[in-house]
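dumping this here so i dont lose it
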């Protein structure tokens, strides 16, 4: 069943993202079709199951293996270039543990006869052998990589163009400035990451940095130039007090600025620049009335935080107006603002730090929210169909109890109804049986699951539970940050 879990998760991720955007589920029931194929031909998946079991056994062994010695490294790199995807996976895991030490040999491997840029999909290998080497090197601050693959910028069919752009940019050399500015003008994320890496590692030459500063200032402030969010941030970080003063100007913080107002507000917030509420309120009002117009649909959050710097209670009241409006475009932003203001962690960021002590009651409180997290993750990703298809669905009774414990009675009732849609006596706790129950659902029953799923799209029930236990969760966040 392991392979079925992986396939289901992939399907659910694809349609879950689509559904989250469209607010309804696609008609093509890919997961239902897969469930029916499992029921109709359970033996047909055995070979794939065995392959995945082997893969995960080798991956687990690689995770537990000791560090590669210098003498063992060449053999591991040879496995990395192998056509067998399982050997590749295991080798990659082990090499990552000694990545800095392996850099010279990985650089040499780019030119090995077995290192090609052609993907062999027939062997089930998702990446080309040379691509796997470069992908590992890209995790290192390797300046040498730019000289080795910088010329491959124009080979997108080899899936190496983006790493090549980043590596070539990260050289930080003045002679690369025309290329880098061309890429930045295209809003190339790899080029942006390359600039940041060059600065972080101290590779950026003075002329290189000066050229990017000039470009960023012009791009951030000249309305005749194409907009770049990154340029505004770079100008704010490296342009000094003059940059922050320019981003605070009436020309930038204006309801007539349909280009950079959201980016400027965000940077001013991050740099601790307090703005007069008389300046911020018109921007917030514009965001509230132009909810579908860019960049005003991206201005609500930054404007709210800017207002909070001088009028925190007014900002909080504004955010609270949207907590019970799950269909409003600012609902999620309002939840995040209230959570930040209260000093709470994200509702999915609940791992207990080592050494943090809790009372038995606090552990129970945290346990309720942790149980809810599993349910929310599955449903928000692929609906109640995915929840009951996957292993999480076996715990629906416990999850319903957790929903009641956090005060979300409507959610508990919806989950229990969904379990009865799967089967009149409630969905089976046995996954194989539950998949068969799910595969037998009619289109009408599937639509009922779809109708119940949106109840879990809003995070307000979990937020309000955390607010009721604010001291505990604020302490958890502080401990995690430490």
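and the seq i came up w/
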């Amino acid at each position: 069943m392991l392979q079925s879990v992986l396939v289901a998760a992939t399907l659910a991720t694809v349609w879950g993202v689509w559904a989250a955007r469209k607010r309804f589920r696609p008609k093509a029931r890919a997961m239902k079709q897969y469930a029916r194929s499992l029921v109709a031909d359970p033996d047909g998946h055995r070979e794939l199951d065995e392959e995945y079991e082997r893969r995960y056994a080798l991956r687990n062994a690689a995770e537990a293996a000791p560090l590669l010695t210098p003498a063992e490294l060449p053999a591991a790199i040879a496995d990395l270039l192998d056509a067998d995807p399982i050997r590749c996976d295991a080798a990659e895991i082990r090499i990552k543990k000694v990545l800095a030490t392996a850099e010279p040999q990985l650089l040499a491997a780019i030119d090995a006869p077995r290192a090609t840029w052609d993907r062999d999909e027939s062997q089930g290998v998702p990446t080309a052998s040379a691509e796997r080497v470069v992908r590992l090197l890209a995790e290192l601050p390797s300046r040498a990589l730019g000289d080795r693959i910088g010329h491959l910028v124009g080979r997108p069919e080899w899936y190496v163009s983006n790493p090549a752009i980043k590596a070539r940019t990260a050289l930080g050399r003045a002679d690369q400035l025309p290329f880098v500015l061309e890429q930045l003008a295209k809003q190339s994320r790899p080029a942006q990451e390359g600039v940041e890496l060059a600065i972080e590692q101290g590779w950026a030459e003075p002329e290189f940095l000066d050229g990017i500063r000039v470009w960023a200032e012009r791009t951030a402030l000249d309305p005749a130039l194409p907009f770049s969010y990154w340029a505004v941030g770079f100008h704010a970080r490296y342009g000094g007090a003059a940059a922050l003063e320019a981003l605070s100007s009436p020309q930038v913080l204006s309801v007539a600025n349909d280009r950079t107002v959201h980016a400027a507000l965000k940077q001013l917030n991050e740099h601790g620049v307090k703005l007069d509420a008389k300046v911020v309120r018109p921007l917030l009002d514009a965001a509230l009335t132009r909810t579908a117009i860019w960049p005003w649909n991206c201005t609500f959050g930054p404007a709210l935080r800017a207002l909070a710097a001088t009028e925190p209670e007014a900002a909080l009241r504004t955010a609270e107006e949207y907590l019970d409006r799950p269909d409003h475009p600012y609902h999620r932003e309002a939840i995040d603002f209230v959570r930040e203001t209260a000093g709470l962690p994200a509702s999915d960021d609940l791992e207990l730090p080592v050494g943090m002590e809790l009372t038995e009651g606090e552990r129970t409180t945290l346990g309720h929210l942790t149980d809810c997290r599993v349910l929310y993750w599955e449903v928000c990703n692929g609906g109640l169909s995915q929840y009951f298809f996957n292993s999480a669905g076996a715990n629906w009774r416990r999850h319903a109890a957790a929903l009641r414990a956090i005060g979300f009675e409507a959610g508990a009732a919806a989950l229990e109804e969904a379990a009865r849609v799967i089967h009149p006596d409630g969905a089976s706790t046995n996954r194989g049986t539950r998949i068969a129950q799910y595969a037998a659902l009619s289109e009408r029953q599937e639509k009922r699951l779809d109708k119940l799923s949106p109840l879990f799209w809003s995070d307000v029930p979990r937020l309000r539970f955390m607010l009721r236990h604010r001291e505990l969760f604020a302490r958890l966040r502080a401990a995690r940050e430490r």
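The CA atoms of residues 4 and 30 lie 13 Å apart.
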